Amino acid sequence: MTEKPEIKSMNLKELTEFVVRLGEKPFRAKQLYQWMHQKLSASFDEMTNLSVSFRETLKQTSTYTVLKRADVQISNVDGTRKYLFLLEDGNVVESVLMRYKYGNSVCISSQAGCRMGCRFCASAIGGLKRNLLPSEMLEQIYRIQTDTKERVSNVVVMGTGEPLDNYDNLLKFIELITNEEGLNISQRNLTVSTCGIVPNIRKLAEEKLQITLALSLHASSQKKRKELMPVAAKYDIYEVIGACQYYFEQTGRRITFEYSLAEGINDTEEDAKALAELVSDINCHVNLIPINPVKEREFVGSSQAAAKAFRQKLEVNRINATIRRETGRDIDAACGQLRRKYIETVS
Fold first, then answer.
1. Does an H or E element contain 55, and which?
2. Catalytic pick among 195, 244, 284, 335
3. Model's pTM, two decimal places?
4. Catalytic-role residue among 94, 139, 162, 258
5. Dist CA 80 CA 78 (whole Å)
6. d(CA 251, CA 283)
7. Three-class secondary structure of residue 309 per DSSP
């Protein structure tokens, strides 16, 4: 049996071709697109300016992806909301809504599970189940915006999974989320994180998008990075830094280096000095993140005092750095924790 086309992952050109094949006028595609990506419709039945017969035809001939909410945790401290969404095949993914003065930011997942195996991360426990479709990435944002009735202005692809390990679907997601007929989120308000898949960083650079690239660095030497991140065995730290430099040269976009601080592991004065030397030639910003504790992992986050000392050492060496504002510490805030808890409960 042929699989039905999954229409929420189609761009407007692809959707128009699909609608015309069904015998409808081309303008119906734009109406359908707006119902999906602007009005965030949860079903064909809500699309009231489409005829009943067209809606019935769509139900028979296409797949319409809408995520179901499995759980939500709301922080009593800062209003951060952590969502767990159920996919059609029974997999689950996490998303987080964070409220800032400049607007609402949503952190989404790009895969169900992850195969990168970073030692301090709960997302990699259990490995990779599958890539997410563009529609499944979009839907995390759409269901959160529908739930809160508040506009999402910033998107971070930094939840479960390695976005550049799902490259083609990521690119289609970016095309759809930034389209003016949809939510029309500016590329400059979109951040994509990677643990350092060098060929795809360079490939992304050549797309010449205006998104921010965030590299999960987490160490200032190849030896230490290999201990923390298996991907470092394939791509040397200097190779990764070179790819980031290339991204900046191609796009003009400042690089963000994510650096998770683990007590006694990578938070010493020597680590800070080595990090400053490593990134000194790149237009960059270092985002310091005291690690959230994960029960399956042995790492402990650095103290605020250690984090501040680390930041000061970077700033003395003329490296821009901030300590990420902690959000949702009273809920399962670390990537993969809520998903992991759910899987343990149902298995």
1. helix 52-61
2. 335
3. 0.93
4. 94
5. 6
6. 12
7. helix
